[in-house]
Amino acid sequence: MSRNVLDNCNPVSWVNGEPASLVSINDRGLAYGDGLFETIRVQAGMPTLFDLHCKRLCSGAAVLRIPFDLEGFKREVGEFLQAQKLPEGVLKAIVTRGSGGRGYNPVGCENPRRILSFHPLPAYKGSPGLSGIRLHECKTRMGDHAFAGLKHLNRLENVMARSEWQGSDCLEGLLLGLDDRLVEGTMSNLFMVSGSTLLTPDLGRAGVNGVCREFIQEHAQGWGLKVETGDYSLEDLAGAEEVFVCNSVNGIWPVIACGDLNWSVGSVTCTVRDRVQEVLNA
Fold it and tell me: In 3D, which of 229, 232, 244 has the Cα closest to residue 193?
């Protein structure tokens, strides 16, 4: 494949530091979702928000007790991106526990597997970051999980939620917990605006602690904003002055509608969007 041509069906990929497109059928990531992943925007050939991605990957590996060499991973990512000779795209990094026999017992799996693949940036009609998007309220509910917050490979709820709608009327879906509390989007985190305060759902029971969400939480004070986390409902969503979703590939998308609810693209959302976009475009 030419390195100047990419598609999502046939990405350029490495497995454990070598060009490859196949993994063993007994890989535990395939068999049990036993692993983690990061989806990283690449700009000017460099991974953006990389320190936060690495921090989350290290934290997740420690929780799952998967051996992880951070410095070796960083070197490998640098070599992989340099080999692509493409200025922008999406790097997907997967770390599994490696190969093992049938059964849940992970004993003996001493060689984690690293999978790197490079994809084109997603293309959307119009300019969702400027004009905003509609949210689909998903019927699929997110259950409470012992490993909430981690970006582990068990993402079946997100898959089923995303299958609920097709077409471009809605670019993202809203996921609720079993008790109808707000959790997140299918591929993003949710923020509501109240004055100069950003309200975002607590992810202690379900959801993914997104890298873009983390960046916003770390820098909001410098933008004249504060962040509060908590349990919020659809009533809280209806009462929000502004709403937006975020992830580390697309940045900030203002939300202008969800069902019968409507919002404008407000000044606070624009401030956060522009500050995040500065980093993603750096």
Answer: 244
pLDDT at residue 196, rounded to an integer? 97
Sign of the dihedral through C-alpha 188, 246, 47, 59 = negative
Check if the beta carbon of residue 227 is closer than 8 Å to that of residue 198. Answer: yes
**Mean pLDDT score across all residues of the chain:** 94
Catalytic residues: 39, 151, 184
Domain chopping of the chain, boundaries: 12-119, 128-280
**Rounded-to-integer distance, Cα 156 and Cα 163, Å:** 11
Measured CA to CA, the distance from residue 114 to residue 130 in angstroms comes to: 36
User: Residue 88 has which token pair?
Assistant: 């922008």
> In the CATH scheme, what is the homologous superfamily, with its name and number, of domain 128-280?
D-amino Acid Aminotransferase, subunit A, domain 2 (3.20.10.10)
Region 161-166: mean pLDDT is 96
| Beta-sheet strand order (sheet of 89-96) | 18-19, 12-15, 113-119, 89-96, 35-43, 46-47
**Cα angle at 230 between 251 and 130, to 5 degrees?**
25
**Best CA proximity match to 234, nearest among 181, 169, 170, 171:** 181
Q: DSSP string of 155-206?
A: -HHHHHHHTT--SSS-SEEEEEETTS-EEEESSSEEEEEETTEEEEE--SSS
pLDDT at 93: 98
Q: Spell out where 29-162 has E strands.
A: 35-43, 46-47, 89-96, 113-119, 133-142
Two domains, one topology: 12-119 and 128-280: no
Overall pTM surpassing 0.90 (yes/no): yes
CATH number for the domain whose boundaries are 12-119: 3.30.470.10
1, pLDDT greater than 60: no
The pLDDT tens digits for 85-125 are 999 999 999 999 999 888 999 988 889 999 999 999 999 98
Helix (H) or strand (E) holding 222: none
